[in-house]
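Researcher: Let's run the pair from yesterday's discussion. Sequence first, then tokens, for each.
Model: Starting with the first of the pair.
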Amino acid sequence: LSGREVYLCQYDLSLLGVEPGPSLTNLRVSPIPATREFTVSFEADAGQPTQLRLFDMAGRLRFQQSLPAGTQYVRQPIDTATLPAGVYVLQVANGETSLSKRVLITK
């Protein structure tokens, strides 16, 4: 090439799509350690219901709550007064996205 050639390029922009972002972000749990309750907060896809599950370290389901579709920013307190002290895993699921956090409960 001598540098004088001009090439025209044609792009088919209809092939480009926007990938959907994650349906669950900014998961936070406080306070850690928890004594009588902790608060979970996150942003979720408002078009889908959200499941909250708390498992003990033996894998037993100790708490479950379903939040209806239509909630985008969630700030949900979870009562731990009846749970024994220990380490738990909080699972938050919305659509195909699932996030987990460890929760320490002390008495």
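Model: Moving on to the second of the pair.
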Amino acid sequence: DDAENFRSLAEILVHRHFPGCIVKGIGLWKVSPGVLHPGHIDPQPPEWIARIHIPLRTNPHCVATMSDGPHQMVIGKAYKFNTETEHAISNGGNEPRIHLIIEVHRG
């Protein structure tokens, strides 16, 4: 089952890179072509550590803008994303952007 495979992958990543932490949530996030999520901050509970993005499908015109500037997340890498700082997401391409998202919390 794909959901179980994603959960197993998430637990391995969190165990290796965030000792003592747990996978609180996991899901797929799609940003359709032409969509802009303007700058915002996502409030998080005190036990929250990070959101991990793993690009599964993207294009050169998908950009995450953080406090330190624009970033293009590429397939084959995982990214620690701090949603407690202002960020924006845009997809100026013709293909959807799909990321596996993992919410990491203190155990």
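Researcher: Give me one sentence on the second I can quote.
Model: The mean pLDDT is 94.
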